[in-house]
Predict the structure of Potassium transporter TrkA.
Amino acid sequence: MPGIGVRYDLTTREHRRLSVIAHRDGGRTLSTYRKDDPDECALSTRLTAGEAEALVGALMPTHHSPNLLCTTELGLVAERIELSSVSYWNGRVLGETRMRTQTGASIVAVLRRAEAIPSPTPDFRLAGGDELIVIGTREGVETAAAILGRE
């Protein structure tokens, strides 16, 4: 697109058409097209360079993990960490992990079978198969995962 930028087109597996115009100033225009008339624009949104960067970060997180629940501009992540049945911590109480002291990360909930236990206390007994929801910095959550993975 002479004088404007470069246009990228994509057709999804659901046969929806999308296009992105990368403007010379760093901005982007994201457009979607009607399914019943793929030549008619259904939505077009102009993004600043910063907004486009935030969108890319949401679509392709730098530290992508299938267990990643969310990330924020503040540098915090929430991640799901499964406690193995052979983990050193299986059957021990949460306080023994000294998680917050050692990593700065917090275990804010435990998912056990069909039950969610919010804000588990230090005397909460961990069990193999528990999924722990951990919030902290990327480094803190990675260290927490290493600690919880100890056999």
